[in-house]
Amino acid sequence: MITIPGIEVSTHIYESANTLVYRGIRTQDKKPVILKVLNKKYPTPEELARYKQEFEIISSLNIFGVINAYTLVKYQRTLVIILEDFGGESLRSFIQTRKLTLAEFILIGIQSVDSLARIHSANIIHKDINPSNIVYNSENGELKLIDFGISTVFYQKSFITKNVDTLEGTPAYTSPELTGRMNRSFDYRADFYSLGVTFYELLTSQLPFETTDLMELVHCHIAKQPVPPHEVNPEIPLVISNLVMKLLAKNADDRYQSAWGIKADLEESLFQLVTNGKISNLPIACQDVSQKFQIIQKLYHREREIETLLTAFGRVSDRNHDTPPRSEMMLISGYSGVGKSALVQEFYKLLTQQQGYFISGKFDEFSRNIPYSGLIQAFQQLIKQLLTESESQINLWRKKLLEAFGSNGQMLIDVIPEVELIVGKQSSLPVLSSTEFQNRFHLIFKHFIQVFTQPEHPLVIFIDDLQWVDNASMQLIQLLMTAENSQYLFLIGAYRDNEVDGKHLLKLTLDKIQKSGTIVNYLHLEPLDLQNVNQLIVDTFNCSFDKGKCLAELLVRKTNGNPFFVNQFLQSLYQERLVDFDLSPVTYERRWRWNLEQIQARDFTDNVVELMVSKIQKLSSDTQEVLKLAACIGHQFDIQTIANISEKLPEEILKSLCEPIEEGFILLLKDAYKSIDPDSLQETDSVKGEYKFAHDRIQQAAYFLIPQEHRSAVHQKVGQLLLKNTPQDKRERKNFDIVNQLNLSIELINHQSYRDELASLNLMAAKRAKGSVAYEPALRYLQIAMDLLAENSWDKQYDLTLALYVEATDAAYLNTNFEEMERLAEVVLCNAKTLLDTIKIYEVKIQAYMAQNQPLQALEIVLPVVKSLGVNFPDKLSQSNIWIGLLKTKISLVGHRIEDLIDLPTMTNSYKMAAIDLLSQVRVAAYLTSPPLYSLIVFEEINLLIKYGNTFDSAFVYAAYGMILCGVVGDIDSGYRFGQLAMKTLDKFNMTRKKNRAMHVINSFIKNWKEHGNRTLEPLIEAYKRGKENGDFEFCGYSAFMYSFNAYCVGENLRKLEQQICSYSQTMNQLKQQTIFNYLQILHRTISQLMDESEDKCSCQFLGEFYNEEKMLPLHLEANDKTAICNIYFHKMILCYLFHNYHEAVKNAEIAQKYLGSATASLLVPLFYLYDSLARLAVFKDVAESKQKFLLKQVTNNQKKMKKWADHAPMNYLHKFYLVEAERDRVLGKNREAREYYDRAIALAHEHEYINEEALAYELAAKFYIDRNQDHLARHYLQDAHYAYQLWGATAKVKDLEAEYPQFLSQAHKTDLKTTLSTSTTGQNISYVLDLLSVLKGTQTISGEIILHNLLAKLMKIVIENAGAQKGFLILHSQTKSLNEEDNWVIEATGSADSDEVTILQSIPINSVNTHNLHPFLSTAIINYVARTRENVVLNDALHEGQFTRDRYILTAQSKSILCTPLLYKAKLSGILYLENNLTTGAFTPERVEVLRILSAQAAISIENSRLYEQLEDHSRTLEQKVKQRTQQLQQKNQELANLLQKLKATQSQIIAQEKLASLGALTAGIAHEIKNPLNFVNNFAELSVELTQELLEEISSQKDRLDPESRENIEEILNDLKQNAKKINEHGTRADNIVRGMLMHSRGQTGDRQLTDINALLAEAISLTYHGMRAKNPSFNMNIETEYDDKLGKLNVVPQSMSRAFINIIHNACYAACKKKKRLYVDVEHEAEGFSPILFVRTKDLGEEVEIHIRDNGEGIPQKALDKIFNPFFTTKPPGEGTGLGLSITHDIIVQQHQGNIRVETEMGSYTKFIITLPKVVP
């Protein structure tokens, strides 16, 4: 409880977040009171002002029907309003305890309306009418309104207030115009809507819109109609329901226009209820004519334009396509006042159903020099919208924004300070170059926008008055609209077309945006015609068209139909009392009237500005002065600023503004009452009341009130007072406002000190504009400032003059005005007092030359300057200069450990710091044009660091020096240590700005000399990202290129790499990095040529899509771009070599070598020497002997380098070294050494994952063996080369090998590889696995069901689920035949995704119709088509495409996606599946169709089996009925049934087994391929080892005289052991190879053509082959063979190779089993005397339509538990090492799958095993 003096507080009755309510007694008179307490411990000034406003409004009313306010008291830091307590309770509480009768409701309604009428008469809008704020005393019937906390005062003359942009009131009761999302000013009729919601709830006990989602509720208020009360509760009379619905009209003009009209209808209803006991259907609103003058707020004649806006927004926000929509622009043009802004606001109202953001801003005529002013307004509005969201949402936005900003958040905060309210304080930015700053700013702004332009919340930006836009804003708009990933952004602009010509900045920029491919739409608004003006008059004055026509004609003549002018003209008529309301007591007629003659006599102007001037002149002189000052400031202003420049108190300004607010000239952006309290205002208080002119024409009129000759003086006064009253710490933020005012009065500023002060202010404004990347206004401010200087300013104001000219030089460069830049730079160079004062000028000139691609000029201007700073370079460069420079540097480093350089002191010498700075600017220029000079620059920088200390650029210098040590000097260890030093320096000094550059150098030129090349890739990606974030687009591009190049060098997959290069190229193009773009295109061209088999490889010319050397090479030569030239010839060398154009490869190598210095220390250099050596060795045999020596010498030199590099980084270079050694030994005839080096190169390349060079080594080794006619070895190497190239992605090279060596690369092998590789990506694997699981699950489920009823139910669920169908039908053949073909097909099963139930076995004809709607069930045309063609039908959009668009069913059902597939069993049509999805188009993908095809095949089999089963069941039931009469037949039939059932179960088992086999087959293929390659390697080496040991033995034998006998004996013994070991390896490797071959054959299935074959002869041959094969392995093997061939068999149509293999597998197992038994008996002494003899018995028999084959042995037999598994892959009963488990599996496939036969087994443990094979004579 609280304690208030004079009040006894008794009860706490209510609490909310903002309010506490208590009951109490006033002690002085014992009156009961209510205490309303502001529930805030630390209330804001606005909250206190709101409570004071509420008290003042209630006190001022003092009317019946409104709660009385006694006093306002302070309590601690808050306020308490003491209100009367008349014993009532809120209607909210009242209706919770009882239901109102109709009479009670009407009485309460009448009192509520009466109270509302009284407050409206007092010019108060309540804004929060709801049951909680209506208090009712049920005992005495007294009713009063409470809670005026958000109420608004409106004015007699306009009766309306401003538009609102935030939701006000209680959301469930608020009116559409108070939601903040409508183009409507609100007025007293907003209370009528809230009253309607209240009435609705009192009558129906529910709200009109029952939702808890705020956005949905807002949309309901604006766009949805509630259910009428009489439909909710039929007891409510229609009249009362209509009254409530009229109150709930969305448009205020369609509601009641007066409270008296509502009261009249309620009173009439009460009268009828009391008199008649009921209320008749009387008309409502008959007496509802408002006496308040209100122009209808409605858009006339703009329906087409609204639709155009909505359509465009629909495109931008569409999320239903795979490709996200592009952002769009909409430009709305028209004369001032024509309604451009009103149109957009109306469009905004219709966007409430979209979960997006709408923001708006406006450019100002007097603020053209303020960069981004209109855009900043818009984004400030966006931030304010975000700040209204929940804390969790704010945290989410904070996270997203911080991710978007990275470390650059302050950059955006400097432009939009409100962003800091969400993200918090951000770290300050490092000093950046102008280019880096511009790049960063644009990037951050794009990221900022992307946070809000998402599919779930598109962003609409409306920018008004673009005719006054500044250049920086248009550049930013262009950037946002043309960005590559610009999506979900709809930018609407409005401009006065009469002020914009073809040369206007707006038009020029829009043309550029349009040319970029962005959609730019245009709308032009015309004035209203006579008909629409007349409609406006009819709606406003509630008169007839005839009565309004004459006035409308007058208005059109005067205003030309301009909507703003029309409104102002009508208001003038009302204010002049030329239009008034007739309240005649005689006629009781209530109407508006006017006299046209009087209006015409008044002679109103037909110029809207003159009209507005005349209206403003009628205001008081004080008010006019305030408006003049406000007009000078701009279209928006605040009270405090006006108070400062008028030197008046804020309350005086507020009083002066009451008149224009009342007239509607000024709109309140914030309620002034909420922030101004004259009683408590302190001197330091900041008044925040914000206002704006209602229209530009009003601002223009107010400004025109200032005489032309006085305007400069007014601007001067405004500027001086703003400057005087702006605190120093806030002056920078207000600087634009101050400077713009003072610049308009320059001619009045004569005293030079004042001119110098204004020049300083302009300098500050220029720096701020430049800091916002607004370079044009920055230069304009600087030009004004320079014009303000005195002629002798270089003497009198040196610092200011120097600062202005330096900034102006930079601004001119940034505006690409290079001529002006040169002029300004020359002025500085001529007048600067010191060399240091000119450094910034030289930096700007360097940047300008580099921007113009003139690196030589940049070097020419810098070298003389740094010489003046004490850093000298030789005039002519030579190799000796470099070595002398290196020697000096090494001398400087003496006594310093490399790792200790990080501890050097910080450099303080200004001249040396300037030198370092300038040299850092031209490093890239030197690297591109003069690599020796680059080295000298780095040497000098190292010397400066050692002598004077570290600087911000130390890390890069150390890295650059490390690069030179590695690449030029060859001191790799020291170079690597300098690279490590560079990284540590970055971390120690937190050099974020330059980190990406150092990372680039380290990972492009240092790390690869000691670490694997692939370890440079991730850091280079990071360097790329950091460079992009930092705005360092140049080095960002270099990192992107070096990543791509290094990835190419280390053998990354070409397909993936090509995609990355495309992405980088696109980015470089956008970032205007043409040089890097060229490098990437050269690499792209190379990769394309390796991948594209259609390219012409022989020419090795770069003339394709990505790069044309005929066009580009001259440009590179002209620019002296040695890097580009080197790359071209380097890549051409490799391509020529790979595609066997060796002489061209050598030519290209010789040219590339001339430019190799431009690629110093990169991976290009070792790769160049590898291919240079290989190319020269390839042409070795073709050149003269003298030339051969020269070639070998060059190769030897290359190898010396490669060996050194391999010593430091064997993982990168040792395999390259060995490969060249192998080729050199090849040409020299050293075959043994060559073989060894090839294999070493292959092994190392494989180990270190250089797949490209592994492939090359395989290929070269294969060629080596081909040349020596060792084809068996060559084949293995070629196949491995083929495989490796394919893994690399070099498709063109794969095809090249296939074309050159077709005899070694079989088609089957290629196909298998292609199949394996085509599913290599993760996404494909996942999809494949999902489909496989789906198929396995589906087939197992379907095949496991034999009952047709259950089968069909499961089948429908499975296919609907797998296909993504909405509904499905299974159509089968009718069991009853019909003459009509369509009647032969019936629907046997139907299912849908919405229900688990499946309707089955209804046998509905396919041409039947649904009895509910008389529509067909499906398309019979499609069913008939599939039945006849047996083809799939897949329709992505059945209604609009395909051959069935005119089908009656499709037209009726508006079908979208349809899939219809046949069920085929043994090439016969057994059924049809018909599926639909009418929720979306394109629902059935090819992958789903393929899955369904597999499921359909299984379904066809299962349906056939089920029907057979049903037939069997029918037979069974029939037999049971006749059992007594036909006992004997029953037994026979039962036997048949048992056999058939057994067959069915076997069929089911086979189906399941087949599915398992299919899965295992795929697995087998993969494993076999992976094992095959290393196995080949093992076998080849074992073979070679045997050969080598034999050669060594022979060599030892021939050299035996040179060896002592003991040594020779030991060597021969070791060699013999090695030979035996190698033979064992070869023996077991061959066995493993046989297993793998079996696996591959099993996975590939059986192939071959059928032939008429003698089965008896085939069996005899198989027996002979198997027997002799067993004898060859075991000479002791013996077996008795008994045959019984049926001579009548004839020939069978089989695949003889496959059938022979099947027989051999079974016979081999029979032989093995019998021999195994004999061995066991031989060991077992007890059974030895039995005299067991192994027997193989083979018999054939003609069964008529089939042939039966018996193969029987007398072995051990097969265990019963193993019988079910013997045909499974990899199952064997043999001991480990004696069987693969694939023989019987392959046999089963051959007999059953390939030949449609059958195989079964009979066995008895310990006695025999018999395989019985049945083959059909005729192939099904």
From TrEMBL:
* UniProt entry tagged with the keyword Chaperone: no
Question: Quick check: keyword 4Fe-4S in the entry?
Answer: no
- What CDD domains does this protein map onto? HisKA, STKc_PknB_like
Molecular function via GO? ATP binding; phosphorelay sensor kinase activity; protein serine/threonine kinase activity
Report the EC code(s) recorded for this entry.
2.7.13.3
All copies of the Histidine kinase domain together span 1566-1819
The protein's annotated catalytic reaction(s) are: ATP + protein L-histidine = ADP + protein N-phospho-L-histidine
Q: Which SUPFAM superfamilies match?
A: ATPase domain of HSP90 chaperone/DNA topoisomerase II/histidine kinase, GAF domain-like, Homodimeric domain of signal transducing histidine kinase, P-loop containing nucleoside triphosphate hydrolases, Protein kinase-like (PK-like)
| Keywords carried by this UniProt record | Coiled coil, Kinase, Phosphoprotein, Serine/threonine-protein kinase, Transferase, Two-component regulatory system
Native species: Brasilonema sennae CENA114
Q: Which InterPro entries match?
A: AAA_16, GAF, GAF-like_dom_sf, HATPase_C_sf, HATPase_dom, His_kinase_dom, HisK_dim/P_dom, HisK_dim/P_sf
Give the source's domain of life in one word.
Bacteria
Q: Which segments constitute the Protein kinase domain?
A: 7-271
- One Pfam short name: GAF
Where, if anywhere, are coiled coils annotated?
Answer: 1509-1557
Q: What protein name applies here?
A: histidine kinase
